[in-house]
Amino acid sequence: MDTYENLLAAVTVPGGHAVTDPATDEVIGHAPVATPDDLERVVGAARSAQREWDALGHEERSRLLNAAADAVDRSADALAELISREQGKPLSGRGSRFEVGGVAAWLRTAAATPLEPETVLDDASGSATLRYRAAGVVGAIGPWNWPALIASWQLGPSLRMGNAVVMKPSEHTPLSVLALGEIVNQVLPAGVFTVLSGDRDLGAAMTAHPGFAKLMFTGSTRTGQAIVAASARNLPRLTLELGGNDPGIVLPDADPAAIAEELFWGAFINTGQTCAALKRLYVHDSLHEAVVEALRQKAVETPMGRGLDEQSLLGPLTTASQFDIVDGLVEKAKSAGARVVVGGEPDRAAPGNFYPSTLVTDISADAPLVVEEQFGPALPILRYRDLDEALEQANGLDVGLGASVWSSDPDRARQVAERVEAGTVWVNKHGAVHPMVPFGGVKGSGYGMEFGVEGLKAVAVPQVISS
User: Catalytic center at which residues (predicted)?
Assistant: First the structure.
């Protein structure tokens, strides 16, 4: 399966759900559509396989996870091409090759991260040790924006801790995750990891199924709320990485030229289709025009096109509905008198879901483009004069996944960062995740941590042995 043709042939089925290339509208393959009976069968097989997998121990499971990462490396070009064709992100830059490299890195980090029993009491009164055991079968439901990468975030730690995993990819990008399953299952025992593609009814069946000890979901806040309600009867443990509307605050001592590159990619990586992308930017009045101009130059010089074209650094939006959301928010901003600095005029007659990189300023703080998550390449830039006012606006929404502070004074930036209500606040960068650094949201952006030691704990159950 080291060629695109072989990989696609392994996951596409006649008469399945048609999957199209968002850059061309061409059908690239057909994904199987699983039924509730398929789910019952797979969960039963996973429960049987999980016991033997857990019994292998951390060392052997880690060896096999590293072997799975090696298998990803061997099929990296084929998987990157499939992601690019299905999801739309370019091969180049921070695109599909970058995504596949992240898959291997996250699997290897999950294998290498130690989680030793912790002595929490050892004195004359007695002793107590805290350890973490496998939860059982993990149900994972993924999004369409980083389909393979986020799958690895759910898969790697879960397998490392001795769980089996049943995963449902988004119906918009099922082939990439099915392909990842084909690749890693060359080395994993049967039944330990299964990908079931299907529609929202399959996702609903998973969240209500009593066979899952743990559910993991990355997606919208509304769907996350539905998962909490549907799973309540069974009380599985939950990790929910939900919607965000990440603010960035540029302090008056920042250097616009120095921060422009990271600002741009913080907002426009994956054409803005990233939960922890920079989605609203507050700039001190003294720097406003300079920051806007620096970002305008980056937008103009960054090529957008079909993902398979090597020169492309930005691609189309993955779905036509997401195009309509972004387009509608920008049109509302225009109608309300906001100034479009660049972009904002898509070619609606052309094939594909291409929306140009768009900067909007002189916009009110309560405009829909500011208070609703656009999830696309349209960044509102707001002036502020008083930092307390900027912080109030940044913290004013019921989301808190990520945020950033931009300054030439790191100590001052950290002081401001501590006042921002978000699970992660970056300084002079935005959206940079690392497999060893815990990541998760607050407020409407969900709960539970991923990555590093905390991520291993999140897919396990604690047990205290006291004597």
Answer: 241
- CATH number for the domain spanning 314: value is 3.40.309.10
- What b/e sequence results for 278-315 when a residue is b if at least 16 CB atoms lie within 10 Å of its CB, and e otherwise? bbbbbbbeebbebbbebbbebbeebebbbbbbeebbbb
**Hey, what amino acid is at 15?**
G
User: Do the Cβ atoms of 458 and 449 come closer than 8 Å?
Assistant: yes
Q: What is the mean pLDDT of residues 299-327?
A: 98
Please state the domain count of the chain: 2
**Nearby residues of 80 by Cβ (< 8 Å), 6 or more positions away:** 91, 95, 96, 97, 99, 100
Go through the chain and tell me how many residues it has: 467
Q: Could you list the residue range(s) of the whole structural domain that residue 84 is in?
A: 4-242+445-466
Q: How much is the average pLDDT of 138-144?
A: 98
| Identified catalytic residue from 81, 86, 182, 241 | 241
Residue 302 has pLDDT above 70, yes or no: yes
241 is catalytic: yes
**Residues 252 and 167 occupy one common structural domain:** no
Strands 214-218 and 237-241: parallel
